[in-house]
From TrEMBL:
Domain C3H1-type: 251-276
Cofactor: Mg(2+)
Pfam families: RNase_Zc3h12a, UBA_6
Organism phylogeny: Eukaryota, Metazoa, Chordata, Craniata, Vertebrata
Gene: Zc3h12d
C3H1-type zinc finger segments: 251-276
Family to which the UniProt record says this protein belongs: Belongs to the ZC3H12 family.
Protein name: ZC12D ribonuclease
GO CC terms in record: cytoplasmic ribonucleoprotein granule; nucleus
């Protein structure tokens, strides 16, 4: 039992010393959920994050006769390394499978559709979390369709089973939602689920912000995985910017005025007027005021000249 727990948390990236210390404090029979809570409380971080904090400086070979400094990138290399600009994807396998099965059947084909959709976009880091007891033969109260897909995704190192066991004939299941949110938070990725994780939002204020900003909801339309084009609402980022680390701001395009030359808003018009490029864009009322002020001013000057001796 000790070795299996040690191997499991080592796969998540935690150090052996921290894991052994937690197991000594909680005991060898402690649940994986409790061990994970204690690791989070201790502030232990996976080794992957520590390596990201201190990236190694790569030397790039200069092209042509010009010499380049380390860290300089060419335009062609940025285009070829487009996958590195995409965020990691963490999929709630149970939520996706039950949604595809109309909340009646655990449809593994729905998980495959979601994974294929992100693969086609170029995402390289895709993880799917599913409880371990889903490997068991299907029963009447928990039917499973296309169960062989789980084995294929596990061989591809995409699917991760959250631990579960039986104690005196009763199944003890770890809270898989905590694994999903924790891995997505550490990888600075995106959570794919229709669940809001309200209990985890109340548990950690940092997770609350992360879930609100990085939760990608979806729908299945005729066996087609369809996330929304505006994941954070009408005024939020687009789907492509939501899934990328470096969002691209759209260029501001001026829409031509529908009234054209008949427009009476002048400089207050928010649309584009190509005929007013070299003109003072005054409203009609301002132009009339300006025209009436000029003759009045001239008439007053003439009266002053006639009255003066």
């Amino acid at each position: 039992v000790h070795q299996s727990k040690l191997d499991f948390f080592c796969k998540l990236g935690y150090g052996k010393q921290d894991i052994c210390k937690v197991l000594e404090n909680l005991g060898q029979e402690a649940l994986e959920d409790d061990v994970l809570k204690e690791l989070i409380r201790m502030g232990s971080k996976p080794q992957a994050l520590e390596n990201q904090a201190q990236p190694s400086q790569l030397k790039l070979v200069a092209r042509g006769s010009c010499s380049t400094t380390p860290g300089l990138k060419w335009l062609g290399e940025d285009e070829s390394d487009a996958s590195s600009s995409l965020r990691p994807i963490v999929i709630d396998g149970s939520n996706v499978a039950m949604s595809h099965g109309n909340k009646e059947v655990f449809s593994c084909w729905g998980i495959q559709l979601a994974v294929d959709w992100f693969r086609e976009r170029g995402h390289t880091y895709i993880k799917v979390f599913v409880p371990l007891w889903r490997k068991e033969p299907p029963r009447q109260d928990s039917p499973i369709a296309d169960q062989h897909i789980l084995e294929e995704l596990e061989k591809q190192s995409i699917l991760v089973y959250t631990p579960s066991r039986k104690v005196k004939g009763k199944r003890v299941v770890c809270y898989d939602d905590r694994y999903i949110v924790k891995v997505a938070y550490e990888k600075d990725g995106v959570i794919v689920s229709n669940d809001h994780y309200r209990d985890l939002q109340n548990e950690n204020p940092e997770w609350k912000w992360f879930i609100e900003q990085r939760l990608l909801m979806y729908s299945f339309v005729s066996n087609r995985f369809m996330p929304p084009d505006d994941p954070l609402g009408r005024h939020g980022p687009t789907l492509s910017n939501f899934l990328s680390k470096k969002p691209v701001l759209p260029e501001k395009k001026w829409q031509p005025c529908p009234y054209g030359r008949k427009c009476t808003y002048g400089n207050k018009c928010k649309f584009y007027h190509p005929e007013r490029l070299h003109q003072a864009q005054l409203s009609v009322a301002d132009e009339l005021r300006a025209k009436t002020k000029v003759p009045l001013a001239l008439g007053k000057e003439e009266e002053r000249c006639q009255c003066s001796p």
